[in-house]
Structures are given as C-alpha cells and as structure tokens.
Specification:
Blueprint (H helix, E strand, L loop, with lengths): L15 H10 L1 E4 L5 H16 L18 H4 L4 E2 L1 H4 L1 H7 L2 H11 L3 E9 L13 H4 L1 E3 L4 E6 L3 E2 L6 E3 L11 E3 L11 E3 L8 E3 L1 E2 L3 E5 L4 E3 L11 E8 L3 E3 L8 E2 L2
Antiparallel strand pairs: 1-12, 2-3, 3-14, 3-16, 4-15, 5-12, 5-14, 6-11, 7-10, 7-13, 8-9
Length: 256
C-alpha cells in the first residue's frame, strides 16, 4: 500500500518500448493480460445473468420490452454492466489495466463506460470510426481496454482492425456507413482516410488491446460458422478529465 492513503501501489506492466509504441501508433497489445480461468468464469457469469427468467432490468437487451426474445439474450450487447454488477466492476479495474493506463496517460485513470459484446456468427461489425466521435472528453485522455474473451479472435470471426498513427490526425468527419453487408447501419464511418491501410489485430483469450480515443479502428462481419467473438471493452479517462455532452457517462469509477 502507498503510505497513509490506503490506495494500492500501481503495477507498471508496460515496458518503455511498449509505452513508446502506444504513443507512436495509438495502440498497444498486452498478451495474456487476463487469465483464461478468469475469462471463463466471467463469460459464465454474464451468461447466467442473461439466461435467468428474472433478468434484472439493467441487463435486459431491449429496454421497454416486456418479453425478452431468446436470440436477443446472447446477441445484444450488455451496456455498462460495471455500474450494477460487482464481477464486471472487478474485471473493469484489473490491476494490470490500471497500471498500463497510468503509464500511457501519465496519471491515474477512471472508468466511464463498459460493454460486453457477443458478436455471434453472421453478425456485422462496426465501420471505421474514432471513439472520440461518440464520447468527447476534456482534456482528451480516453483510452479503451479491449479484452478478448475467446480462444482466438481473428479475421474470420471479426477481430479489430486499426490504422496505426491515425490518433495524431485529430477528429475526422464521420458520415454514413458505405458497406452495409459488412457493417452495422446505425453507426457512422470515418471519412477522409485510406481504409486499405487498416491492419488486423489478432488476439487470444485474455489478451488486452489498449487504444487511443482518436485511433481509427473497425471490425468486420463474423464470417465463421460456429465461432463467437465475445469481448469486454471498457473506456477510461484520466481522473482529472471530464466527459462532455453525455450525462449517462459522467460518473467516474476509480480503479483501486
């Protein structure tokens, strides 16, 4: 413990080279950041929440609908489980996540959003975008931590694609999605960049991808026959930053 504060000391999981890579490219991949046993337990826990007949209101896939469609249980993302569920909150504040965020941000981070994604076979991805387009913060400090919840996340089942270095371009215009066969229609797509420069980020269970709020990234359709692409994604800002325009994301959750 840090003397007289009760706050645990932070880990420093990233090497100097990894921190430099993040600042240069806008992302860094930490292999095996979360144990497979914890991932399996968390996946089972989330499944139990969505499987129950008495599903809590916060976990219902379609707000305002009395009946729950069985398909929706395991296809519609679970939004902000960390607010209501202690297991989700513990995964949100893994010591390795807290430490890595402090290294790339330069100070203590807090969480403002979490999402558990299912992405079953056949489901579309999200077109190229920058997270800052949807969640603006001041000063800019937001970093996402994307945890792979499957044995393998690759091009076939809809891995993330990134364009290294685009976090240095600032916020770019976003417009309508151009490929509705590949991507969800309700989101927007970054304009003014060459999307052929995207590269895939192949991940294994427990790997954690940290990426900058202005990094252009996307995912494609899950083309596998029987492989899901579950993931747990949390968004963090520096403790002295503030989310703008989004009243639903104003509460800051500490990581210790």
């Amino acid at each position: 413990m840090v003397a007289n504060t009760g706050i645990p000391e932070r880990l420093n999981p990233l090497s100097r080279e990894q921190v430099d890579f993040f600042h240069e490219n806008g992302y860094v991949l930490v292999k095996g950041g979360c144990s497979a046993d914890l991932i399996d337990a968390f996946n089972g826990h989330i499944r139990d929440i969505r499987s129950g007949d008495e599903m809590p209101d916060w976990a219902r896939p379609r707000k305002g609908k009395e009946a729950v469609d069985d398909k929706d249980r395991f296809s519609v993302r679970l939004f902000n489980p960390h607010i209501h569920d202690s297991f989700s909150r513990q995964v949100m504040k893994l010591p390795i996540v807290r430490g890595a965020l402090a290294q790339v941000m330069g100070d203590e981070a807090v969480c403002v959003q979490s999402m558990y994604f299912y992405k079953e076979p056949g489901s579309p991805g999200q077109a190229a975008h920058q997270d800052y387009y949807y969640i603006k913060d001041d000063p800019k400090s937001m970093v996402a931590a994307w945890i792979a919840m499957e044995e393998l996340v690759d091009e076939e089942n809809g891995c993330l694609w990134v364009i290294p270095g685009t976090h240095r371009l600032g916020l770019l215009p976003h417009g309508k999605v151009t490929n509705l066969e590949e991507h969800e229609a309700w989101t927007d797509q970054t304009e003014g960049v060459e999307l052929t420069d995207q590269i895939p980020v192949i991940m294994e269970k427990g790997d954690i991808l940290f990426f900058h709020e202005l990094l252009i990234h996307s995912s494609n359709k899950n083309r596998s026959k029987d492989r899901w692409r579950r993931s747990y994604v949390c968004h963090y800002i520096r403790h002295d930053s503030t989310v703008l325009h989004r009243e639903d994301l104003r509460v800051k959750y500490p990581l210790y």
